[in-house]
Amino acid sequence: MRLEAENIAVSIAGKSIVKNVTLDVPEHKFSALLGANGSGKTTLLRAIYKTQKTDSGTVRLDGEDIARFSGKKIARRMAVMGQFNQINFDYTVMDIALMGRYPFHTLLEREKDGDYEAALEALSKVGMKDYRDRNFQSLSGGEKQRVVLARALTQNPKVLILDEPTNHLDIRYRLEILSIIKDLGITVLAALHDLGLAAQYCDYLYLMRQGEIVESGVPEAVMTPETIRRIFEVEAAVYPSPIDGKLMIQYL
Ligand SMILES: Nc1ncnc2c1ncn2[C@@H]1O[C@H](COP(=O)(O)OP(=O)(O)OP(=O)(O)O)[C@@H](O)[C@H]1O
């Protein structure tokens, strides 16, 4: 499914945070939004998934403006994993995964055939199946993050929006989650901080600075020492890995 955002502008308390951003996110690819702290990544993602009021802009899924879509209609197409996943009630891991099926239910329906299986499959994918009866609150930060990703996967989305999906994860799960996301074969737009992992896993990169997309393209085209200096104000060398030719970054 194609995700387009056109002329998205957001200002908060009179300050311009996202400045007329236009994105045509490559279909069935894993794209990342990169930028320094405070450059506007979260705000842009929230504007795309409609939890942030915008000054202007249109978001389209397969060419259709989603402004008039109901929440459920959006959720049947697009799943979101935000940066802060506070769930303050007493839910089990399975309850959380099953919440991903909600967009497919009518008002009075509880669960349908296949919901449990879909939730279990998603929990297996993120390595949390054996935790299904645990209380969500009792999990570590990284375990919670994996369960919240499972909830998004249970939604069976065509578009997945992720804000720092590997934030709390150790290196093994970082790599595992990124390869799960890559193998989904759906349209993914993720804010990421680790430039090396973004270069290794992503098909397309958007580089954001002070509320604007200043570069976009395949990693080989945009991940250069000049761009890294411009966006992050650090010196780096970028070179192909001797193992698979993917870009590696060494900070100097
Ligand atoms: N509700 C708010 N009130 C005031 N300022 C805000 C609000 N939300 C965001 N901002 C400001 O907007 C700017 C962009 O924030 P945003 O969270 O989008 O950046 P980011 O690129 O996701 O940063 P990070 O990498 O640190 O997560 C920041 O300067 C932030 O302080």
Automatic annotation (TrEMBL):
Matching InterPro entries: AAA+_ATPase, ABC_transporter-like_ATP-bd, ABC_transporter-like_CS, P-loop_NTPase
CDD domains for this protein: ABC_Iron-Siderophores_B12_Hemin
Domain of life: Bacteria
Keyword Electron transport: no
Coiled coil: none
Residues in ABC transporter domain copies: 3-235
Swiss-Prot/TrEMBL keywords: ATP-binding, Nucleotide-binding, Transport
A Pfam family assignment: ABC_tran
Key word Transferase present: no
Span of the signal peptide: none
Single GO term (MF): ATP binding
The protein's name in its UniProt record: ABC transporter domain-containing protein
